[in-house]
């Protein structure tokens, strides 16, 4: 569950969050991956499943990335039978709040998706928490769909650690994707539907601003929404 009420005032939210979207590490430009996937002509696009804190902000951020066709908020890492918000929020199911990103690999590569993930989406040095949210359901996790995605993910983590890109080692888990389960309808496009929510203003809108400032070539102003308003 979110660690403060969404009905709290903005001023109270600001006092409770020392950072604006990242727990301890500020958003920063990162080098491109030295190992990346080869381009593919897959007509339906490729998918990446990532966990990095509350899925509201993850979905809202990647909806502003060029080449992304769709972003679904959901759960991954545990069983389908336990993939409900109230159950996942107990932190006992193995599931993490996740997003499934469908993208055109001829516009943006899997490695570039990970570059955004590590740079502006969350703090990859945190263990079982992001910003104000705590528990294994908010862990940093890459769920790879095939061997090439695994190689790219592990190589990039190694590259960033060797470069001391962060003040602490990257804690991101790299696990095989065993299932992705879409979240309840009221979670989808939450950032777009609730831009004035104190939680969104403090924790998530700064991520989109950082994407625009740090990677303008990957930013698009009009998000690709999962559903119409």
Explained architecture:
The structure is a single chain. With 229 residues, this protein is an alpha+beta fold. The chain has one domain (10-28, 42-214): Peptide Methionine Sulfoxide Reductase, Chain A (2-Layer Sandwich). The chain is built from 8 helices and 8 strands, in the order αβαβαβαβββαββααα. The protein has helices at 10-16, 55-62, 85-88, 110-121, 147-162, 190-193, 198-203, 205-214; strands at 46-52, 68-76, 96-103, 129-130, 133-134, 140-144, 173-176, 180-182. The strands form 2 sheets. A 6-stranded mixed β-sheet has the order 7-6-1-3-2-8, with helices on one face. A two-stranded antiparallel sheet has the order 4-5. β6, α5 and β7 (173-176) form a beta-alpha-beta unit. The longest helix has 16 residues, at 147-162. It is globular, with a radius of gyration of 16 Å. The relative contact order is 0.24.
